[in-house]
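hiii, so i know i said id send this last week but things got crazy w the move. better late than never?? heres the sequnce for the chain we talked about at the cafe, plus the structure i predicted for it. fair warning i was half asleep when i ran it
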Amino acid sequence: MATIIYARKSSESEDRQVQSLDDQIQALQTFAERENITISEVITEARSAKAPYSRPEFQRMVEDIQTGKVDGILTWSINRLSRNLIDGGMIAHLLQTGQLNYIRTPERTYRPEDNVLIMSIENGMATSFVQDLSRNVKRGMQGKVDRGGFPGSAPIGYKNNLATHEIEPHPDTFPIVEQAWRLLLSRQFSIAEIHRELVKLGLKGMFKNNRNRPVSKSVVYSFLRNRFYTGQFEYKGQIYQGNHEPMITVAEFNEAQSILSKAPVTRPKRLEFSFAGSLTCGKCGCAVVGESKRKHYKGTGKSVVYTYYHCSGAKGCMRTSISESDLFEKVANVHDRLDIDGDFIEWCKTSLQRSLEHDASIRARSLEEFKSELTRIRERIERATSMRLDGELSASEFAAIKAKLTAQEEVALGNIKGNQLATESLDELIVGKLRAVEALKNPTSLPIHALRGHIRSVGENHTLTQGTLVLNVDPIIQKIAAFEPRASGSERANADDYFAKNPGWLACLNEARTLSREAMRSDRNT
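okay and structure toks below
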């Protein structure tokens, strides 16, 4: 008799407890030697048997049985042959009609003269097991989702805790990914620039084939579109509030999506002008555009390219030009006029940090109150979920309660995130604007994208009117630049010049923080 070994291992969940293919084959070969069974072929398959006609090796084995090449099967268990009624019925028919002389497992032997009902019952039990397991897995998955558990692998910036089965911030990549969101929300960096910054910070891919490679630009686009970073996630078309720590607020996520949707389509350009997109015509409001002209000097035989800027003239405005070199000089004059140097910026930074420490206890109390409120809301969500699973709430009742509590949870998370970031963001905004002024001391040395970013930080609505440049300096910078020596005798601010020695300077700095807070509130509302 031609007897074959058939071993199957599926990657599906219901087969995870079954021995591996190598273990099955080794055990069956040992069994064959003990029983003096000659094996003509070993057939292995790593596919699920839940669906019929889905296993090519199984189909080939059936054809060999029908053509008389095989008349006996040795397998680990009858459910290795099938977990569905169609494939199981086919094997039962081959055995009952005598085309298959026997099926042997280490526990028993099935022959044509046996009552086929026994094998049919076993095959039916295997099929029922698959169906029950599928329902239980789906029910368990839905219960996990309702309790705020994300049903998948953690995205970049987070990690799966295999011990607690929770998703936690990754200690190395979480702050780097968070920096990407901050750069995007600043509206001063393109995706390409954000990607370059993440590569500099050492962010790597998270999958096996790219873990040692810098993160790709497509991955950056992908995670900047992912709602998971708000503490929420999507499952089967619905949005759920997760238990993981959010990286940004829902409002910040929506703002980021607006920025991404309005991102201009990049097109190849022959020339890139330093001040393009930074200035408008003060007379008609049209864009100021750059233009390059080449001039050939016969005396030296050399050609020189000169760059000029003027109104686009779309509304008939006069196109009075100004050279790029003159524009650079006027921009540098802004730094000289404001008289903000590096030492002064360090004083502001130190004073802001000390003020932050002074407010820490107040913010800590508020933070604890917000966290307590979040805990109470999540406990109510957990109770409602348990009542739904126990049948005490209908689907519509649970949906209404869940929607209300989720809205409250979102507010609480926003309060926590806002409490943690508000003061830090204010101080970063002020110091960032001051550093932009310092950088414009030598604008010709700056890369084009950095120059544009610093000009936007210094102020908005800069105009060029018939060759005359007007830079509208931000009120925050104006307030700080207006500091004057006080009666304390301080000629210039320094690190020790704080509360007791120079309260007047600190009052001006706090006024700048008030302006910053109003600016941030205005940005969120627009």
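btw The mean pLDDT is 77. thought thatd interest u
miss u guys!!
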